[in-house]
Amino acid sequence: MGIPEPSISADEMRAWAALFETSNIVQYAADRNLRDSVGLTLAQFEILLRIGEAGTEGRRMTDIADSLTVSRSGLTYQVGQLERKDLVLRQPAPDDDRSVIAHITPAGLDLLREGIPGYVDLVREMLFDRLSHADLMTVTEILDDVRRQLKEQPKRSTYRRARRSVAQAGADAGAAAGAVPITE
C-alpha cells in the first residue's frame, strides 16, 4: 500500500513544507540555545516572557494559554516548573475566584534579561538576516492575516479531551495486556 495522494497542489505542499520545516529548525535551535544559556525550554521561556510582559499586574493563566495556543493543563504544568524554580508566582485573581494570575519574580526578570539577547540574536541570524525588508513585510502581512482568521476560531485552551467510550477503554486495556481480539 502506497502513500495516499495529497489533495493539495505541489506548490501548496512546497509552501507548507517550507513553513513547517523552517519553523521547526528555528524552534529547535532556539530551544537548544535557551536550555544551554538559561536552563529553560523554549516553551517555558515563551511563557515567562508573556508573564513578564504584563509587568507587576501579572497575567491570567487562560490569557497566557490563549496567546501561546497551548492547553490549560500543559500551561499549568509548565508554569508549575517555572514556579519551582522561583521564576513565577501564581495567585488567585482578586476579581474572579476561578482565575489564577501568574506574576514574574525578580529572579524571573533577571533570567529574561539574561536570555533575551541570545534568543533574539539566534532568531535574527537564522531568519531575519535571510530576508529582505520587503520580503519580511510580505510574509508578515500574509501570516498576520492567516493568524487573525485562525484566532477567530475557538481557543485551544477551551478544548477538552474527548472521553473514550467504556468499550474502547476495555479494548485498549485488553490490547495492552496482550489479549487477542475475538473475531467472528
From TrEMBL:
Where in the numbering of this chain does the HTH marR-type domain appear? 12-148
The region called Disordered is annotated at 154-184
Q: Name one GO molecular function term.
A: DNA-binding transcription factor activity
Under the heading SMART domains, the entry gives:
HTH_MARR
Q: Name one GO biological process term.
A: response to stress
Which SUPFAM superfamilies does the entry mention?
Answer: Winged helix' DNA-binding domain
Please list the residue ranges that the record marks as compositionally biased, kind Low complexity.
Answer: 167-184
In terms of InterPro entries, this protein maps to:
HTH_MarR-typ, MarR/SlyA-like, WH-like_DNA-bd_sf, WH_DNA-bd_sf
The record's annotation in PANTHER family points to:
MARR FAMILY REGULATORY PROTEIN, TRANSCRIPTIONAL REGULATOR, MARR FAMILY
Q: Please identify the protein, giving its name as recorded.
A: MarR family transcriptional regulator
